[in-house]
Design brief:
The protein is of the alpha+beta class. The protein is 47% helix and 11% strand. The chain folds into 2 domains: 66 residues; 208 residues, Beta Polymerase, domain 2. The strands form 2 sheets. Strands 5-4-3-6 form a 4-stranded mixed β-sheet, sandwiched between helices. A two-stranded antiparallel ribbon has the order 1-2.
Length: 301
């Protein structure tokens, strides 16, 4: 899925706009001209340039104040509804997430960085969604991190049983609330195997709430990400959570990662089994896993 890099001079604004809109569509949402101008592949452009390029491109259109591919016009209204409700519905979950991250990094000292990703970061969150988290961890701790996030996430979700759910977030015991979207070991980041524009966009749209220096180091080690989105080099840092005393690292030796893999894989299989009657949910999980390759934890069907 690696994309050959080309310079800004090679690509016209229309080309860059098409590529950005395509990335957004793959993730299930769209942006208005102003926001799209800020996150355009190849760097910021003006809102006027976005509107001119969208009007001139035969395969793009502006609908519901969103720039979309013309064959996706039917989806614009639903995306607009989600975006309109984001501000109201996301506020309480941002507070919940920051509290969860604070507790997570206190009990898991091998975690180097945590970023909020997915709809809560991109602007299309609704109350039935779960919260996606991207983690960078010490080498030999990916599966331990997965188990800890899910165990702590389950305890956290038990206090929020009344949370609205959909086919993706419905679970037998408690709603799915905090999800490990992407877990990378530090050595996997220096350099990243994938430095394509989709991975660069993942970094661009996520909000780091712990370990900002770690993310800056990753960007320096992977300059191709900034080639795709120069905006990465100029982002204002988000406020990080205040972390108290962390547990000793000795509590999590690397040898635990192997049994953690089997525990995590069994839990993941069980969750897939609970979705066996919901094909749309299974298809969505399969799509997300495909976009994360080769960084998926459990490369199984």
């Amino acid at each position: 899925m690696v994309v050959t890099r080309q310079t800004d001079e090679t690509w016209t604004i229309s080309d860059r706009l098409r590529r950005t809109v395509a990335i957004l569509r793959r993730r299930g949402y769209a942006l208005n001209a102003s926001r799209l101008a800020d996150v355009c592949v190849g760097g910021h452009v003006s809102e006027l340039e976005v509107r001119w390029a969208a009007a001139a491109a035969p395969d793009l259109a502006i609908a519901e104040d969103l720039v979309v591919e013309r064959d996706a016009l039917a989806q614009a209204a639903a995306i607009r509804v989600r975006a309109a409700g984001h501000r109201e519905e996301s506020v309480p979950y941002l507070g919940l997430t920051r509290g969860f991250v604070r507790r997570l990094v206190e009990v898991a000292p091998f975690i180097r960085s945590v970023s909020i990703a997915g709809s809560l970061a991109s602007g299309g969150f609704r109350a039935s969604d779960d919260v996606d988290l991207n983690l960078v961890v010490d080498d030999g701790h990916r599966h331990i991190a997965y188990v800890v996030v899910n165990a702590l996430g389950l305890l956290h979700a038990l206090r929020h049983r009344a949370k609205p759910v959909d086919d993706l977030t419905r679970r037998p015991i408690a709603p799915r609330l905090m999800t490990a979207n992407l877990i990378l070991e530090r050595s996997q980041c220096h350099p990243l195997v994938r430095q394509d524009e989709d991975m660069a966009f993942e970094f661009l749209m996520s909000e780091t709430v712990f370990g900002g220096e770690e993310i800056e180091e990753i960007l320096r080690a992977n300059p191709a990400l900034i080639d795709h989105f120069p905006q990465l080099a100029h982002r204002a840092p988000a406020p990080e959570v205040d972390v108290g005393r962390r547990l000793p690292r000795a509590l999590y030796p690397r040898l635990l990662d192997h049994p953690a893999r089997w525990i995590g894989q069994a839990a993941w299989r069980y969750m897939q089994w609970t979705r066996r009657g919901r094909p749309d949910a299974l298809a969505r999980v399969a799509y997300v896993r495909e976009t994360m390759r080769p960084y998926t934890l459990f490369d199984i069907t």
